[in-house]
Amino acid sequence: MRKAAAVVARQRIGIVRGAVLAGVALALVVGVGDVGAQAEIPTGCAAKIQEVEQALDAAQRAHADNARIAGLRVALAMSQKCDDQALARARAAKVAEKQSKVNARQEVLNRELRDGDANRISRAKQKLDQAAQELDAARVEQRS
Length: 144
Hints:
Elements: H1 2-37, H2 44-61, H3 66-79, H4 84-115, H5 118-143
């Protein structure tokens, strides 16, 4: 009986060791995966170039129309000449334009709220919401 108990104990120890080794291996794989995920995300012109390259690759794999592929190739060539500072200025100008639009829509909504016409208020709210979404999208683009 003692020999049988010793064999069972050794088997359990082997199982535990295997589980520990599997856990360590999994932790290493997850850790290495995190390092790859934490790699620097391209911003500015590098992000723009990567985005165009991905779109071109997808269009070529999907056998999209030749005009789209040609357009993406031109966009890629143009983005190779990209300047991070100029891109930042253009994005900042876009955010300022969208902010101005939101301000104008807010003024219209305020005026409609004073007048009290429910249909015009609803329409003004929808336009303000859309302008706010466009502003948010421009801000997100500015950060990338």
